[in-house]
Amino acid sequence: MIDPTFTSAEDLARFEIFPAGSIETQAAELPRQAHITITCSPKHGPDHSVEAAGRLRDLGHTVTVHVAARMVRDRSHLDALLAAMKDAGADDLFLVAGDIEDQLGEYASAVELLPILAEHPQRPPTIGITGIPRIIRSSPTRISSRPCWTSAGTRTTSRPRCASTRTPCATGSSATASGD
User: Fold this and answer.
1) Please, are residues 137 and 145 in contact by the beta-carbon 8 Å criterion?
2) What is the pLDDT along the chain (180 residues), one digit of tens a residue?
3) H or E element at residue 126
4) Pairing mode, if any, of strands 35-38 and 14-17?
5) From-to residues of CATH 3.20.20.220 in the chain
6) Under CATH, to which class is 9-130 assigned?
7) Where do the H-state alpha helices sit in the chain?
8) Dist CA 162 CA 176 (whole Å)
9) What is the pTM of this model?
């Protein structure tokens, strides 16, 4: 249901910024203070996204920080990210698997990190999670919109298969029913 206090599409919109170059310049091009989502760059990682969020908050914008689970090294890194988000005034986190092939730490997908994040004492009040599985790049039939699933509740080292075609998903994919 749409909140009746919104007056235009701009009030409902979120603007996504890739944290490279001068994000302040990108944000200044917006017609007014806005809700900005900050993607997690495979090159710079979630620490850079959180730092960028602080700069945009200082300009008066509301921010959502994307955190790539595959780039969270361990629990202490998660602790540091959440503390930095709190210090930056960022209270909205969007959890994604991330675009890097090889995870840097313990977490291969957003689903693996979500339970830890949900129970974390410094978790932000709003947490989003991806719900669209990774594109199947290696499918011989090139069916790119079929969801990939792993065994329910079981971590597997084998490549997941598409639920509908039972063909292997892309190498390195760990998409699940709940999100990538």
Assistant:
1) no
2) 444 455 666 666 777 888 877 888 888 777 678 899 999 999 999 999 999 999 999 988 999 999 999 999 999 999 999 999 999 999 999 999 998 988 999 999 999 999 999 999 999 999 999 865 555 444 343 333 333 333 333 333 333 333 333 334 333 333 333 344
3) strand 126-129
4) parallel
5) 9-130
6) alpha beta
7) 9-12, 23-28, 45-58, 75-88, 110-119
8) 10
9) 0.67
